[in-house]
Amino acid sequence: MKLDAPVTGGPCWTELGTSDLEAARRFYTRLFGWRPEADARQEAGGYTVAHLGDAAVAALAPLYQPSQPVAWNVSFAVTDADATVRAVTEAGGALLFGPTDVFDMGRFAVAADPGGAVFQLWQAGTFPGAGLFNAPGSLGWVELMTRDPEGAVSFYPRVFGWTVAPSDRYTQWGVGGADFGGMVTMDDKFPPEVPAHWLPYFAVADVDDTTAVVQQHGTVLMVPTSVPDGPRIAVLRDPQGAVFGVYRAGDEA
To answer: What is the pTM of this model?
Structure first.
């Protein structure tokens, strides 16, 4: 990711909705060295922010709705959540929740693109988003998995003003040309029950060592692989079923 701080239109935060918050805290603390701190306010419902040093890097939360899947979610920074929601629906997407204020921290909404991939909007108040990117244990890349790549290329630049760097192998998203993510077309290798989704990638010091830790407790969906002219990556699933990627810190993602 060429972004090193939250910028309008770019990914600013990632949070896990999980069926077992305590187990997730233990798993990711061991995996990434996070220091989790739960919000003590009753209204926060157990929302837990993970830190590396003094920097907030991600969040872990219980499932707030019966229909909510166990999954990692990606938030994109916006200056006006209400206006962005209107842009989402005008471009063919759907509003799933909000917009709503989260204490004085910011304004939040959940939406889906026309292909069904869910994402979040964050209008910063006192909390701008992650305080660290690209370092081991922090967010470093986001990837859209979709069965409708043409629709995605039409939708996201219209909503967020993203730049698009297409290629035969891999399309990349950017803000002002600074790439922060990419897109993979879901073919018949993906089971039909797997929905379109956004996949966060965390930087790690060693992809193979990280994968070995996950093998003891979770599932390896894609073994460590060196992408031609790109990073070394793996795709993993935690014990509760949430999928995430890792890549070697320092590699160009």
So the answer is: 0.95
